[in-house]
Amino acid sequence: MDEKYTYRIAVEEDLRFTDEIEKEALPIIDPYYKNNIHIFKGEIDGELIMVYDCCYPVAMGRYSFHPDGTMWLETVRVRPTYQGKHIGTGIYEKYLEAAKENNIKTIRLYTEGFNEKSMGLTKKMGYKIIQKYDYYSMNVADGDRDTLGFELEEDLDKIMKIVEKNPWTDMICINNVFYDVNRENLKWFVKRKMFYSKGDNLLLVGARHNRDSVAYIGYMAGDYKACIDAAIAMNPGKTLSAGISKNNKDLGKYFSDFEKRYDLVVSEKNL
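RE: above sequence
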């Protein structure tokens, strides 16, 4: 880690800089952190790391804790004029320090398959690829919301029994954040009212963040077409997406009306 730069956990006064850092680092996207600050400060445990060159904020990176005790890494943003100066490496080193301080045993992240720079950095820092996913997306037309007969499902024991008998994919993908399929994580989704059922059909759909504009299909059991139709009807005017494991090739045929965008690569580091 270059001692020229200062790495620290963000405080309230730092948050005013996240917007400009993101706009410089990734000008084609809406500011991810600013748009979801209320969720990161209220619902999702973790911290934002800020990097300063003297008094000038040059980079940022967020880590979060999943309910099952794994750490998720996201939002590494470095101003273009400071890229190539090993600042990203420094952020990853801070991630590792935080994991050890919190007795975390597994750290995970994702990169797009085409992002060779990010892929190279994660490999350099000792992260191993554990799975690859196809990313599907659809812009749903505006209209009235309709559940098509699916009702909110809040019985965690019932959900667990269905999931255990009907493995759908390796991990649950919501907002390109990946969760192991276990009781602790599923309870988190139940609490946020993201499970729906209709007869023998079970659907996990919703968003971790950017809830006004996106939704993700995280799990389905039963009639896949009925589940997808319901997910579309529940989310008028939003972008509906799904990350499907490449180990489950047959699932892709159910997303023929979606656009297949790119690969998502999930990597992990075990401590």
